[in-house]
Amino acid sequence: MQVPMDYTWAKKLGLVRKPSNFVSSISDDRGDELTYAGVPISQVFKQDLGIGGVISLLWFRRQLPVYATKFIEMVIMVTADHGPAVAGAHNAIVTARAGKDMISSLASGLLTIGPRFGGALDAAALMFMEGVRSGEDAASFVARMRNEKKLIMGIGHRVKSLKNPDQRVVIIKEYAKKHFSSTAVLDYALEIEQVTTQKRSTLILNVDGCIAACFVDMLRSCSAFEETEVTEMIENGCLNGLFTVGRSIGFVGHILDQKRLKQGLYRHPWDDISYVNADDA
C-alpha cells in the first residue's frame, strides 16, 4: 500500500500548492511587522499619517497627500454626530435603554444608514460626476431630473438656506476651494443649487452633497487615480463608508451617554402616535 505524500512536507518543498480561499491586498501581518498597503506600521506613526492616512492606505491602497488625508479626517469630524433625534442615533439610544450591549446598540443605529439616512453621498457623487462628464448644464440637469421624477441627491435641507447656510457645508467648501487644484464637481453642484433655490430657498447643496462633490474633486485632482478608478470607488460605496465611520463616533457617544445617565427602557408616548382603526385604513 502506497502512503500518500505528506501535504505539509510537500508544500515546504514546493511540490504542491494550495489554492487561496480569498485574496487580500490591503494589509499583511505575516512578517516581523504589520503593513498597511505595504507601509510598515512603524512608518505610519513615524510619518504621522493619522486616521486619514490609514484610511487612504487601507481603502485606496495609496499614500495620499496631506491635504487629502486632512480632508478625509474633516469628513469624519463633520459627520460624527447630528443630535439624538436622527434615525440612527434614535435607534442606538432606544437599544441601549433596552439594556443591550454596546455592539448591539451600535449595530441597531448603523442598520438605519441607507438611501434616506446618510446613504445619499454615493448617489450624489455619481449624479454630479455624470453631469460634469456629459457636459450637461445645470438647468438641463435639474429639468431632466424633474421630468424623470427623480430626487437630486445632496440637494435640500429642512431649515437651512442660502441666507442661513449650514456651517458644515461652509467649512468643507472653503477647504476644497483652498486646497484642491480643481473643484469642477463642486462648482457644478453649486450651479445646480442656483437653479433649485429659485424654486425654494431650502433646496440648497446640503452637507451630504457638498462632501460628495468635494470628495470626488479630491480624488480626481490628487493625481493618484484614473477617472475609471474614481468612479469604481464611488460605486463601491467608499463615501457611505466614510459616513459610517464618522457617525459611529456619535452613536457610541449616545450609547455611553444613556448608560452613564442610567436611562430606563424607552416607551414612545401614546399622544405622539396617530392610531388608525382597520376600518379607517
From TrEMBL:
Per its UniProt record, what InterPro entries does this chain match? Citrate_synth-like_lrg_a-sub (IPR016142), Citrate_synth-like_sm_a-sub (IPR016143), Citrate_synthase (IPR002020), Citrate_synthase_sf (IPR036969)
Q: Which Pfam families match?
A: Citrate_synt (PF00285)
User: What's the superkingdom here?
Assistant: Eukaryota
Biological process, per Gene Ontology: acetyl-CoA biosynthetic process; fatty acid biosynthetic process
A molecular function (GO) held by this record is: ATP citrate synthase activity
* Entry's Gene Ontology cellular component terms: cytosol
Which PANTHER family does the annotation name? ATP-CITRATE SYNTHASE
Q: What is this protein called?
A: ATP citrate synthase
